[in-house]
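User: what does the whole thing look like in 3D?
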Amino acid sequence: MKQSQLFSKTLRETPKDEEAINARILSRAGFINKLHAGVYTYLPLGLRVLNKIEGIVREEMSALGAEEFLMPALHPKEPWEKTKRWHSFDALYRLQSRSKSEFALGPTHEEVLYPLLTHYIASYHDLPIAVYQIQTKFRDEARAKSGLLRGREFRMKDLYSFHAGQEDRDRYYDAAAAAYKKIFKRLGLDALETKASGGTFSEESLEFQVACPAGEDTIFFCLKCRTAVNKELVKNATPACEKCGGSTEEAQSIEVGNIFPLKDQYAKDFGLTFKDKDGSVRFVSAGCFGLGTSRVMGTLVEVFHDEKGVLWPEAVAPFKAHVLEIGTAVKNYAAAFAEKLHASGIDALYDDRDDKTPGEKFADADLIGIPWRIVISEKTRTQKKIEVKARHEDRPVLMDEDEFFARMKGNQ
Ligand code: ATP
Ligand code: MG
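Assistant: Here's the predicted 3D structure for the full assembly of 412 residues, as structure tokens:
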């Protein structure tokens, strides 16, 4: 992709109305644009990252045996009244149609899914079921100053599983927790499994927390076995690890995922029952598994940045390589090299801009944060080499093209 044709432009100045590091860097680097507090456009660069994050989530959901579907974001009031959340869900966006019918913008989807499932579940033969979606959610957050970490419109993967009994539900819950661990590892995040209260959903839940100063949660995590508890939510959280007795450290953290055993809570509201093997009619038992994909994008920037810009982990980087053409004399060679990268399946951004100084190109490359920077200049051409630098390293290395391609291959 030629940078001269890229829609996104980097900005000289950090937007004055952004406080959070992730929003400041992502706006300046041309990944996102703010429409309103907590409401962002994903520009082409940003959408590339979001799609990569959601691609990893999709792969692991599929490996878990869950099927993808898509529910509506516009919900009628009635099911929200049935669960008594029309009034109790503080962050619910409520709106009225021209015919004065009332609607909510979906902040979560039990109110859509449970009525739907009453048409699909009749007997134990119909269970288990696991469905998920990746969708835009709406929450009227009181405070939306954390950029992508707390959106009023944001992206979430929500998985729901339905079972004939607790044993099967627990089995799936453990498998889903393992899938979450895999996802965060692939995303490059060190997410701690954290015991927490379930809020409006259930008595206890498991959160996936990334220790980071930008986080709005506080956790205690064990320095020895890495068991973590949420300070605010879990009553009687103690400074000593309850699992191994090791000493714990208090840290600010970001909740990137949250899984709950829903049990039969909403099944009772909607009469979601099934006929069991012995003929008895029982409520369906469920699990609910949320993961904030746009919050993950903000978290990655909070964790992987320096004073110059982002350092994207390769799995989620908008491009793998960034080719900087320094001076128009090397244009033909640089264009051919970018074409070669493309032909070998290496996704590259090629800075072919004639109206930028070398300094501006270097600064933009650091700001955007693509993992591999390749500089092509008259000097490197004279030496018949290219200059390669990993974003996290200080010094570039001169190498042959072949050496670079071999290295990229080993790296894939
Ligand atoms: P928080 O406590 O941070 O408000 P929550 O516990 O209300 O979040 P859940 O209902 O558990 O959120 O939603 C599942 C996941 O969706 C969260 O773990 C988080 O990753 C993401 N998420 C929730 N609210 C937001 C938001 N306002 N902006 C971005 N992501 C969010
Ligand atoms: Mg939560």
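In plain terms: The two ends are 20 Å apart (CA to CA). Residues 270 and 301 are 41 Å apart (CA to CA).
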